[in-house]
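EI: anyone free to look at a 162-residue chain?
SC: sure, send it
EI:
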Amino acid sequence: MGDFGVIADVSTVIAQSLSQALRGLSQVEPPIAELNDLSETVQTPPPKLTVFLYEIAEDPTSRNRPPVRSQPPAPPTARKPPMALLLRYLVTPWGGDQATQHRMLGRALQTFYDDAILDGAQLSGSLAASTDSLHLSLTPLTLDQKSWVWSGTRFRSRTGCR
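SC: here you go
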């Protein structure tokens, strides 16, 4: 079970998984994935995929889970189950030509599709050696949601907000 650092741990796992998947795209200057708040210009080369956490929400489907009971030999107790979160990321290619950027996006989508559930040794930080797993999925956005994400990132980059 993750602790308060689980959001940072999930973000790191995603960036590391993408960086590893991008290695095979170029022998000369392989693209990398990095966590980025998009408040400043992304420095290239090398070509990069930025991973930007733009929304955090509680997973409503886990809201009414039963209490977690302690396992023997501990005294019997019950506590609330851990909060399940929905973390939404914007993955954006930078640098190289259009074909390279499209290959980076294609590799990211392939990685998330092929390894839609990350668990065990694929996890690090507070999630390492736990029974937790990350479930990855592509989230379709409405036009209003897309507008909200883009206007928010443009505002941050114009004002230097962090």
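EI: The radius of gyration is 18 Å.
SC: 👍
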